[in-house]
Amino acid sequence: MSKQTAIRLPDETHARLKALAARSGRTATFYIRQAIEEHLEAIEDLYAAEQALIEHRRSGERTLSLDELDAELALEN
Length: 77
Hints:
Blueprint: H1 11-24, H2 28-59, H3 66-72
């Protein structure tokens, strides 16, 4: 099943999308769906990382520099 949604685009973005659709023979919807599907995971990952950072800072747990982590794990060359 699929759901329908509406978005507002700046005039320039809309014009570029329509031009691409006309040149390629695909629909604007195809390109909108493709862009969302290709970038949604990265956006979700970024949000999750931001939330983890906020939670870490609130916890007051110690943060290590890369040098400290290398030393702690005995990874120094």
